[in-house]
Amino acid sequence: MDRLDELCRERGLRLTEQRRIVLEVLEAATDHPCTFEIHRRASVGRRIGVATVYRALNSLASAGLVTRHVFRDGKARYERTGGAPHPHLIDVATGEIVEVEEDGLVRLIEEEARRMGFRLVEFRLKLFGERKPA
Hints:
The chain is an alpha+beta fold. It has five helices and five strands, in the order H-H-H-H-E-E-E-E-H-E. The strands form two sheets. It has a three-stranded mixed sheet, with no helix packed on it. Strands 1-2 form a two-stranded antiparallel sheet. Strand 1 (66-70) and strand 2 form a beta hairpin. The termini are far apart.
């Protein structure tokens, strides 16, 4: 049994070929693709419909294997669950999404939660900005 199959079983979800394809696309992604982009990547050399991608994403998100983000552009964008929590910086002009990988910021958030008497379980932080002209 491979890792994806095991993850799905743990979450009570059968790993279909379509779900496997979608998960593999998201594992390879270095961005936060929308459904149509996931479909475009998944359909390279394979036959998979956009409706199938939608259904796969919905079931994977419900099972907690995929995180759905809706940013300012209104599009749902996806990433695999399981990575370290990280803030997202969204360019308000272009919609570009950049993962903020600053350990100091994450530690600060965790420390503030502890100071307030909480053990941080999860967080979502969206920062919105504009790139400075070069």
